[in-house]
Every structure is written in C-alpha cells, then in structure tokens.
C-alpha cells in the first residue's frame, strides 16, 4: 500500500481531504477517496483533514520487531526533533530504545555537517542560478512531480537522514539492519528507495510501541547515545540551515520558506523569473520538523516543542563540554557516497478540446464566465482546472459545492413552487420567511415586501403557538380569513433543527359553500315535507273516516322522509369540512 490510504468502510465522501490536498492528488471513485500515487507528495494533509479519522498509515513496526526477534543487529538513527516530543525524558530515549532491542542508537544530527558543506559550496557559486536545499522529502516530491523544470535546481546531495544511514551501514557493516525514526511521514517514501534503509517509523509510532510494551520513560535511567553529538542540535528549528549558511557570508542570498503553499508560491514566482542567485531552504511543514507530518503533537504547542529543543541543547553543552570534538565518522566519509540524482516525475493530464471543456462546465451549471466562481471549494484553483480533472476521471462534478447547492435548491424550489398547497416558512418569532407562489396569489401579494411581516397579518397565529408550546404538529386545523371571506384548512410543522415552522394550507371556501347549499336544500325539503303533512292532517279533519287508513299511511311515509333528512343533516355536521 501507499504510505497513507483510506478505509473504504468509513469514507463519507465529504471531500475534506480533496479540498486540502495542495497538489490535487486525491480522486473519488464509487464515493471512495483514493490517493493518486503519481501526484502525492506525502504531506499527510489529507489525514489531518479527515473528520472520520479514516486514514491508514503504512507502518513498519512489525518489520522491525521481526529483525529483533531474529537476533539481527539493528542500528537506529533518530531525528533530532525527538527532543521536542519527549522533553525532559529525552536523555532516557537511548535506554528505552535499547530496552526494545536495538543494538546501536545514534542521533541523525551527527550527519548534518557533511550535507551542510555541500550546501555551502552551492551558496558560493556566482552563477546566477537558484537552488533548493534537499533535506525535505515532501519538497523534493513537490518539485519532481509538479515543478519538474526545477529538478536540476535541487542540490544533488542526500538529506542528513540518508547521509547517516549510509554512514551507519559503512560503520556497522551491511548485514546490520538500519532503522530511522523521525517526525515525517515522507521519510518513509525517501527511505524506501535507498539500500541503506531497512525500515522507517515516525515518533507517533514509537510512542505507541512504548505504550504497548509498557515502557514508562519516567521509570528509566538516562542513557548515552553510541555516538555523542553536541553540535547542530538546534537544526530542527526552522531557519537554522539558513543561519548556518549565512554565517559563511555566501555569494548567494539564502531565504527560508515554510509551508507547502508558500513553497509553491515561490516556485510560481521562479517560473516568472522573479528571483536570481538565491538558495531556498524549503520546508513543507510550517515550523519545519518541529511540526512534522508524522508527529502526534496536538497536546503541545510549537513554542513548547522549541523550548524542549533549546533546553536539551543547553544540557548537552554542559554534559559533553569535555568530549572529544573529532568527527566520529571521519574514517567513513570518503567511502560513503552522498550524492543524489533527482529526476522529473510529472504525469501530465490529458487536456480536453474547447467543446469538451465547455460540455463539462455546462454540466456543472457554468454556461458563462460569470458562472465560473473559482471558489476553490473543490480543491482546484479554478473551475476550468476542476473540469480538466473531471475529464481525466480524477474528480467528480459533485465536488463542486455551488453546483450541488444550486441543484438542491432547484429541487427544493420545484417542490415548493409546484405544490397545489399554500406553503410558507415562518420563524419562531412568528415572522414570515417565505411564501410560495400559490400563497402569494391567495393573499394577493405582488412583491417580496411581506417577508419579515408577522404571520397574524394573514392568518391567525394561535395554532402556531399551540404547535410550539405543546410540542405537537397541527393537522386539518380550520381557520377563517374573515377580511377575505375565505376559509383555510392548515397543517403546521415545527422543524426543530432549523427552528422554523412549515405551514401548509388549502382553500376550502368553495367546499364549505357547497356544503351550506346542500344543507339549505335539505332544510327546504324538510320544511316542504312538514307542510305536506300539515295539509294532509287538515284533509283528514275534513273527510274524517272516509280516508282513515290511507291518510295514516301517508303521514307515516312523509314523517320518515323528514326523519331521514334530519339524520343526514346530523351526520354531515359530524364530518370534518
């Protein structure tokens, strides 16, 4: 696997990783984030941005444990920034590492001077060229993969890390396994192609290893590194390389740049020829190695970590003041190659023609230049860059936030406007936020001045208070609009998360009028039946016994008609209008 990847089961397609990646090295396929190795510079910004903590970091701890279990001699080079993490327990690290089983324990900083000598050589060249220090592997990746025209400007020397591991292989023989422990995830990438490195882990991995082995630094005695170093101990602090080079009064200017964004800005400026005869000390991480991509530093500030480094240096100056200053690797320098060849590795994207580009932009709702907001929400600098990425199948239309928001709004508006109901949104102060077209037509509203008006100006708001205070939605509530001689049946819903009411109503005025008409017809019929009965009774009185039984039957029939009308009327009164 690559040095960092994502778990398939936990990716929520939130695009947070894609939006922070400075080189657009993340694609989405089947709603799953994937790292494009050809573009990745191993800065680890994606892991830090992931809200699901979904990243998987490639670990070689098990590989090291295998070396130790097989009784291999294992030498470890530990980067000087370890002091920033372990603080007052830093002098106990040699003891802790040897307790884990390491045979030799040394500080990487011992190999700084041979590299600085090469930097000083290039700083004294009066050739008008610009050069970059090559100790930061993320910056080396950035230049090789994304600014290949400047590959020739990387000073062709290994970093102190590789300088030290090569020297250790020479000193302890090639059958000794050499492990590097540092603050940077990209060191795994740098070490993977060098034969002097057998494994790389970060300080965060080392801390987890200590915890698993129940190694409590507070309970250990201080120990000594196998090679004593009292020089360059401030090297992890940003700008120290610049300071050391400037101490030699070089021909070239020396400038410190930290953070991928600022480094990219410098590289773009160099493309325009705005710098000459300059050495750039570039660090991908702000605050350089004291804020490395492999640090679990959320519990301490940068200032605290810098204080730890300075305190350690002061203690070493006192502790080793009488120590022999002879360089311990003097005898191995001549037979240890320190050169490094940097090569262009950029993978060019396919470029769509104008019609293809326009088609992609149109599919994102961008038909004019005004529509191209270039907001950067997708992680790309411009909408056209994003369209090119879509053309190369390394991005998706859905990553365009304005497009997705507009799409959602269009669907919501379609529902809102096409509904046959009167619909409104009302805030918790009972003020109107919005009416749909049907509602505005019903209330004869011609413009948007109604927004912010109290709801009671149009509809009695008693039911709204009932909904809010009694924590219940209101259904089929009949409300008369007296000044309009209209009647509505309304439903009211309280949307808790949004803290607004959704009001839906329909006009039942015609239905009620029809019912009133039907009721009147029934009433008239009933009265007519009563009149007939009364007349029949009069006839009965006049003709007496002659029509006795027939008259009685007529009265019974007409009484039944009257009762049926009354029953039907009573039943209707029970129904909801």
TrEMBL record:
InterPro entries: 4Fe-4S_dom, 4Fe4S_Fe-S-bd, 4Fe4S_Fe_S_CS, Cytosolic_Fe-S_CAF, Fe_hydrogenase, Fe_hydrogenase_lsu_C, PAS-like_dom_sf
Start and end residues of each 4Fe-4S domain: 356-417
Enzyme class, spelled out: oxidoreductase
Domain 4Fe-4S ferredoxin-type, first and last residues per copy: 2-31, 32-60
Short name of one Pfam family: FeS
GO molecular function, one term: metal ion binding
UniProt keyword terms in alphabetical order: 4Fe-4S, Iron, Iron-sulfur, Metal-binding, Oxidoreductase
Domain of life: Bacteria
SUPFAM superfamilies linked to this entry: 4Fe-4S ferredoxins, Fe-only hydrogenase, PYP-like sensor domain (PAS domain)
EC annotation from Swiss-Prot or TrEMBL: 1.12.7.2
Entry keyword annotation includes Magnesium: no
Name of this protein: Iron hydrogenase 1
Source organism per UniProt: Intestinibacter bartlettii
């Amino acid at each position: 696997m690559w040095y960092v990847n994502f778990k398939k089961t936990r990716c929520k397609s939130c695009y947070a990783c894609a939006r922070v990646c400075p080189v657009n090295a993340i694609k989405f396929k089947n709603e799953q984030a994937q790292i494009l190795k050809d573009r990745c510079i191993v800065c680890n910004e994606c892991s830090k941005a992931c809200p699901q903590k979904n990243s998987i970091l490639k670990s070689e701890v098990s590989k090291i444990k295998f070396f130790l279990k097989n009784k291999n001699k294992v030498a470890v080079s530990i980067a000087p920034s370890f002091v920033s993490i372990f603080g007052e327990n830093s002098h106990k690290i040699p003891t802790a590492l040897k307790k884990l089983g390491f045979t030799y324990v040394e500080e990487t900083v011992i190999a700084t001077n041979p590299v600085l000598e090469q930097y000083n050589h290039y700083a004294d060249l009066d050739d008008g060229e610009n050069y970059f220090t090559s100790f930061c592997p993320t910056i080396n990746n950035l230049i090789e993969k994304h600014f290949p025209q400047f590959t020739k400007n990387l000073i062709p020397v290994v970093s102190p890390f590789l300088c030290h591991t090569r020297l250790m292989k020479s000193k302890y023989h090639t059958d000794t396994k050499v492990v590097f422990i540092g603050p940077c995830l990209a060191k795994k990438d740098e070490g993977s192609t060098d034969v002097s490195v057998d494994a790389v882990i970060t300080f965060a991995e080392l801390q987890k290893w200590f915890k698993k082995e129940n190694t409590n630094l507070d309970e250990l005695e201080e120990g000594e590194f196998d090679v004593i170093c009292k020089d360059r101990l401030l090297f992890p602090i940003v700008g120290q390389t610049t300071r050391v080079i400037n101490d030699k009064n070089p021909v070239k200017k020396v400038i410190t740049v930290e953070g991928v964004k600022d480094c990219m800005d410098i590289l773009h400026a160099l493309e325009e020829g705005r710098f000459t005869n300059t050495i750039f000390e570039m660090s991908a991480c702000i605050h350089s190695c004291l804020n490395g991509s492999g640090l679990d530093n959320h519990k301490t500030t940068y200032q605290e970590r810098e204080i730890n480094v300075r305190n350690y240096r002061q203690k070493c100056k006192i502790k080793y003041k009488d120590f022999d200053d002879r360089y311990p690797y003097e005898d191995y320098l001549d037979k240890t190659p320190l050169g490094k060849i940097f090569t262009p590795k950029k993978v060019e994207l396919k470029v769509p023609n104008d019609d293809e580009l326009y088609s992609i932009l149109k599919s994102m709702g961008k038909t004019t230049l005004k529509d191209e907001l270039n907001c950067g929400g997708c992680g790309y600098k411009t909408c056209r860059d994003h369209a090119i990425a879509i053309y190369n199948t390394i991005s998706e239309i859905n990553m365009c936030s304005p497009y997705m928001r507009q799409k959602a709004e269009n669907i919501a508006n379609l529902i809102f406007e096409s509904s046959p109901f009167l619909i409104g949104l009302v805030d918790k102060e009972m003020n109107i936020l919005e009416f749909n077209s049907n509602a505005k037509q019903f209330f004869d509203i011609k413009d948007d001045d109604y927004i912010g008006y109290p709801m009671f100006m149009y509809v009695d708001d008693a039911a709204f208070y009932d909904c809010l205070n009694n924590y219940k939605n209101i259904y089929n509530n009949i409300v008369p609009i007296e000044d309009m001689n209209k009647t509505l049946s309304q439903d009211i819903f309280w949307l808790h998360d949004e803290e607004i009411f959704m009001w839906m109503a329909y006009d039942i005025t015609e239905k009620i009028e029809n019912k009133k008409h039907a009721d009147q017809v029934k009433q008239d019929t009933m009265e007519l039946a009563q009149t007939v009965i009364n007349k029949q009774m009069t006839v009965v009185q006049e003709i007496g016994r002659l029509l006795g039984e027939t008259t009685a039957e007529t009265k019974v029939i007409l009484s039944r008609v009257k009762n049926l009308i009354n029953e039907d009327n009573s039943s209707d009164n029970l129904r909801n209008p």
